[in-house]
Amino acid sequence: MITPFELHLADDTITDLRDRLRRTRWPEPATVPGWTQGVPLDYLRDYWADGYNWRAFEARIGALPQFRTTIDGLGLHFVHARSANPDAVPLILTHGWPGSIVEFAEVVGPLTESFHVVCPSLPGYGFSDRPTGPGWTVERIARAWVVLMDRLGYPTFAAAGHDWGTSITTSMAQQDPDRLLGIHLLPPLVAPDPATFDTLTDAERSARNDLSAGESGDGYSHEMSTRPQTIGYALVDSPVALAAWILEKFEAWTDGEPISRDALIDNLMLYWLPATGASAARLYWESFAEVRDRFRVGTTDKITVPTGCSIFPRENPHPSRRWAEKRFKNIRYWNEPPRGGHFAAFEQPALFVSEVQACFRALLS
Where is the Epoxide hydrolase N-terminal domain (predicted)? Predict the structure, then answer.
């Protein structure tokens, strides 16, 4: 059964959040300027409590056609926007951490010119249920997505994703290749190929260096993949802890500052309102070690589904095509857009839409 979903913000929910923000026990400022020790004090202090328009958020989220259904014992929340185009292709878009369906809010409408768009909230994220037991791995989520598309009447479909969405999209292609018309990965998860180390291009050398440098900002993943419950207490109880934990990654992983404060807080609200800070972190405990090995160590599995890849300049990892072709054996589209980072749909919605359209034109022609 599929039921419509509407968000209604109760006044006491808003009052409670404002009170928590205003009663925050603030630390002293960092001892150095900028973000090198974490989120600066002044970036968080007042706006969420006193400048943010709560009802405008409710309207923005409410403009998306949302539903819920139960799959494999878990209630799942998703956006489903059908196209008026009789030749539209079903497309499932998958977000990651620290994102949400908010990342896709500005691209759903334009994409419906060519696609029936489905954007699920990951288990334990947004308004999907929080798993009460272990086992909701990338592979299990991928199986649930295939069931969701079947339930919506799409026996075959296209898929795209970034962050966790890259791994889930790839897993769908592994488990149900006959159901997938093509996949679009931002980026594909592959490790540098040792066979190329004697002939590295400048871009490949830079990509290897970026992987090593990125380890200095990996504290979040070590914590969430080993002790998600520990950090979860802070993320569920303190809106400032949640904001600091998440916004630091938006600063580190975006290309410039293309996302407004309102949009960033919209995304935070999809963690705060349903209290999913801990449950979202548990996906790292379930699957991150395996996923990390795919782009740091390597993997022997092969993907044969038609594949497109968009490598945005501020993304990390930043694989080369020849590295990707070791794992993805049917790459038909490869592009490296001029701007954008880890949150491409959120940062550069028009560019993201054009990438998705160009990718599937190449894959489906």
Answer: 2-104
Cα(355)–Cα(188) distance, rounded to whole angstroms?
A: 15
Q: Write out the two tokens for 192.
A: 């540098």
> Of the listed 125, 220, 284, 333, which one is catalytic?
284
Residue 299 CA to residue 233 CA, distance in Å, equals 35
pTM exceeds 0.90: yes
Provide the residue ranges of all domains of the chain, joining segments of one domain with +: 2-25+35-364
**Residue 70 · residue 96 · CB < 8 Å:** no
Question: 328 is written with which tokens?
Answer: 């993805």
pLDDT, tens digit, 9 for 90 and up, residues 181-234: 999 999 999 988 889 999 999 999 998 888 877 777 889 999 999 999 999 999
Which segments in the chain show pLDDT lower than 70?
Answer: none
Annotated active-site residue 77? The verdict is no
> 2-25+35-364 — its CATH code?
3.40.50.1820
Q: Are strands 157-162 and 115-120 parallel, antiparallel or unpaired?
A: unpaired
| Interstrand relation of 115-120 and 74-81 (parallel, antiparallel or unpaired) | antiparallel
